[in-house]
Amino acid sequence: MNPPLTRRDAAIGLAAGAAMIIHGNGVHGAEVVSAHEPRRVVSLNPCLDAILVQLADRAQIAALSHYSRDRDSSSIADLARTFPFTYESAEEVVALLPDLVLTGRHSSPATRAALKRLGVRAELFDVPSTVEASLAQVVHMAAVIDRPARGAELVARIRAAIAAAAPPPGARALTALVYQSNGFASAKGTLVDEMMREAGFINAATRYGLKATGNVPLERLIADPPDVLLAGQPKPGVPTWADRVLTHPALRAISGRMHRAVFPQRLMYCGGPVLIETAQMLAKARSEALELRS
Hints:
By secondary structure, the protein is of the alpha/beta class. The chain contains eleven helices and eleven strands.
């Protein structure tokens, strides 16, 4: 077993790696890396991972975050499992000799501080709460990895998917609630809330007392069901305590008053290309609900 990488080892490794990249020894053959085109990109955030795999050349990606390998919460789990990954420690990241690290507000502060001390170039991304902020994030990443045309193309695809999910003018709006494990729901001021509105839904979270993302008691939901329940899917096997709310018999008892549609948990967390599937799932849920009412 190799000994653990110390901070001194990391700094030496970074310097050596930079020298190899600049002089074309080993890592990139005889090519010289331009200042505008990072050749070894490490992402420490699953939402950034989902954008990066759409924009970068495969050879540019040195590692993704380990979170993206989780099929329950990641929209790219199968693809992510074909890439190297890290657990977000500075030692792991620096050992990969990156020339660009993508970090989010929830990335480890200790790792971000260590990368700064070691002089590793890092780009910090916020958590977008609107569609436009999410699209701006795509454009920003495309610029820092020197793939602006791919960024523009991805933005166009996301806009097209959202437009395709929109109901026709004058169509009736349906009330809906995103309902995940433990009764977790998405309220106003979130990316999911905006996507619901774009697809012709009125978010019912506020009528259950939610002012921010939180939990809706099953009793409140049963007493006053929305038109559509955008429900998560419990994991296979014996339901966990958190998943029991999704399989409760009381939900079946009101099935005649409320259409239940599948809305996977993996669509709750990220924007970017994930919004394409989100728009499609919301449009499908609305179409099914209207069909049952006709």
